[in-house]
Design brief:
7-stranded parallel β-sheet; Rossmann fold; 3 domains
Length: 319
């Protein structure tokens, strides 16, 4: 049986991570990503609270999109500009598609995002998707929760292997959908459901101006047809960027840095606990959860929900 770090060891790792020590942070994340991380998570987030790491002011920005749209390269370019423009701290979580054989990452996003190695204000972590639908890893949510305690901004890049990678929008404060000119994606925006995913669009790889403009106006026209589904909201912003020409990067970064996060993160915990229950206990678990919904109203932390739910399950098994 593995040894869970004691309070002193855990406090030391948290303090080192708070000072920008990447090895300590990597060790904490590795523990979270273990299948039997429940007890460790409880101790970790309690220690973070006791040591005064709140994470309430951190901003979580999601980037999703189809393969080849240039998500990794764009995030790399944004990160370099971020270090020039801001004194704040940034972490990046990139989800890679998993091998059906080994379960390991196939593409290796880390090789496509070039970052300063010795800069403690920036941290990169890649995860294998573990063949999970939705574009994120089953442990991504808890890793994001941890990173929020140490970083002002958390960027999440989803796996991007199809049209169902929308899970990131459920725990990002703001999410972008990245497209490329003449990629054929614009027709998807005639489906009103896709409007629930991104808060804004990025048309990337706008190296050839004529092609980029053609796709831009096609997208604008497509979105115009969906005004009725927005219920009075304005149309999402569309950014045009090119990593090659370094165009649009500053404008996009300025928007991210100026974006004010609404102080509403309680719903994300509820959604994630329901996802965990469905994965572990199926429809039966969700029925139990909703049947005892009154008991859960006083909780705000994932581990509080988790402990209370497991107690209910144990009592049902005894009966």
């Amino acid at each position: 049986m593995r040894r869970i770090p004691g309070t002193a060891d855990l406090s030391s790792l948290i303090s080192e991570a708070g000072n920008g020590e990447k090895f300590a942070l990597a060790k904490l994340i590795s523990e979270i990503e273990r299948e039997d991380s429940g007890e460790f998570r409880k101790a970790l987030f309690q220690n973070l609270k006791d040591l005064g790491f709140s994470g309430e002011d951190s901003k979580t920005i999601g980037f999703t999109g189809t393969p080849g749209a240039g998500k990794s390269s764009l995030i790399g370019a944004l990160s370099f500009e971020f270090l020039k423009k801001s004194q704040k701290k940034l972490s990046i979580v990139a989800i890679d598609p998993s091998s059906n054989v080994s379960g390991g990452s196939i593409l290796g996003d880390r090789t496509r995002v070039s970052l300063p190695a010795r800069e403690n204000r920036i941290y990169f972590r890649s995860q294998a998707s573990q063949l999970e639908l939705g574009g994120v890893n089953p442990h991504t949510y808890h890793v994001i929760r941890l990173l929020r305690h140490f970083f002002d901004y958390v960027f999440i890049e989803t796996v991007g292997i199809g049209q169902n990678e929308i899970e990131v929008s459920k725990f990002a404060d703001f999410s972008f959908l990245i497209l490329q000119p003449l990629g054929g994606d614009q027709v998807q925006f005639m489906k009103s459901g896709i409007m629930e995913v991104p808060d804004a669009f990025i048309l990337n790889k706008c190296d050839e101006v004529a092609l980029a403009n053609s796709s831009y106006y096609t997208l604008v026209t497509s979105l115009e047809f969906l005004k009725d589904t927005l219920k009075g909201k304005s149309l999402p912003k569309i950014f045009r960027t090119s990593v090659v020409n370094k165009s649009g990067i500053d404008e996009l970064l300025d928007f991210i840095l100026d974006f004010n996060v609404p102080k509403v993160k309680n719903n994300e915990t509820n959604l994630q606990i329901q996802k965990w229950i469905k994965n572990e206990y199926g429809k039966f678990g969700l029925k139990v959860f909703f049947a005892h919904s009154e008991k859960f109203k006083k909780f705000s932390e994932f581990e509080e929900f988790e402990t209370a739910f497991l107690d209910i399950i144990q009592s049902l098994l005894k009966d």
